[in-house]
Write a structure and sequence with these properties.
It is built from eleven helices and eleven strands. The chain is of the alpha/beta class and about 270 residues long. The strands form three sheets. Strands 6, 7, 8, 9, 10 and 11 form a six-stranded mixed β-sheet that branches. Strands 1-4-5 form a three-stranded parallel β-sheet, sandwiched between helices. Strand 4, helix 4 and strand 5 form a beta-alpha-beta unit.
């Protein structure tokens, strides 16, 4: 047995891993996989990568910097794959894309990265701890009527409605919330006030991209300017909740279960 473990730890140390998204950094950090490059981000990154080279933003990383790190693999999220894959390929850099659009995606990503870097056991433990907490969440809401929600995504002053296929929509549906947006063609759609007029959700959940304060400010102005919002019970009852960006983003992350616990507090809190 001993020889196996030494071999696997050597294979990890020979890898030069660049993580091109914050969520990927978190997962690799939790699996104790060392990284040589991580994204430049306003979010706090784990201690283990404090001195690691920054490669620029997740959306458009600096290819020269990445190439200079001579990575054996770049791990990225597949929502960005089309743009990035061809760039990595042209630099002859091996790339791996994980799907973090949902909670199940996070669990899959943990398992597949665990296999890739020879830390399967750690990955299995991490997933098992998620599932244990997930079961507790399900028990806590058993028999309760799930409230209806409208999830709005704001980037600057433009707003979209998020369906169940979005990451936050997925987390909300796992904790029993009913998304008023059904049969949406994509994860995010433009806001259509006429469509929403007769839906009247119990809660409006607002998630911000990039500058949360700015987006929230713009969202509050939208509420005041557009009187149609005043007809919603959620607005009248003060059930408009700004979600914390650390837990609720475009892709699910290591805090997915914490995010579900927070949603349970918001949606079922007495």
């Amino acid at each position: 047995k001993q020889t196996e473990t030494t071999e696997s730890s050597e294979s990890v140390s020979e890898e030069r891993v660049v993580a091109s998204s914050v969520a990927v950094v978190q997962i690799l950090d939790a699996l104790s996989v060392p990284m040589v490059g991580v994204p430049t981000s306003s979010y706090e990154l784990p201690e283990s990568v404090a001195d690691v080279t920054r490669i620029g933003s997740a959306m458009s990383p600096d290819m020269e910097v990445i190439a200079s790190l001579e990575p054996t693999v770049v791990v990225s999220v597949d929502s960005l794959s089309e743009d990035l894959k061809s760039q990595f390929d042209s630099l002859k850099i091996d790339s791996e894309f994980v799907n973090l659009n949902s909670y199940d995606g996070v669990k899959e990503a943990i398992k597949s990265l665990g296999e890739r870097f020879g830390v399967d056991e750690k990955a299995e433990e991490l997933v098992a701890s998620f599932e244990e907490r997930e079961n507790d969440i399900q028990k806590s809401i058993e028999g309760k009527e799930g409230p209806s929600v409208l999830i709005i995504f704001g980037a600057g002053s433009s707003f979209m409605v998020a369906s169940e296929d979005s990451c936050v929509g997925n987390l909300a549906s796992i904790v029993g919330a009913k998304n008023i947006l059904t049969d949406a063609p994509s994860s995010f759609s433009p806001i259509d006030m006429e469509y929403l007029a007769d839906k009247n959700p119990d809660y409006i959940l607002f998630m911000a991209h990039a500058n949360p304060e700015e987006s929230l400010e713009a969202f509050n102005q939208e509420f005041e300017k557009n009187k149609a919002w005043q007809n919603f019970d959620a607005v009248k009852n003060g059930n408009v909740v700004a979600l914390e960006t650390e837990y609720f983003g475009m892709s699910a992350n290591l805090y997915a279960v914490d995010a579900m616990e927070k949603l349970v507090d918001i949606l079922y809190g007495e």
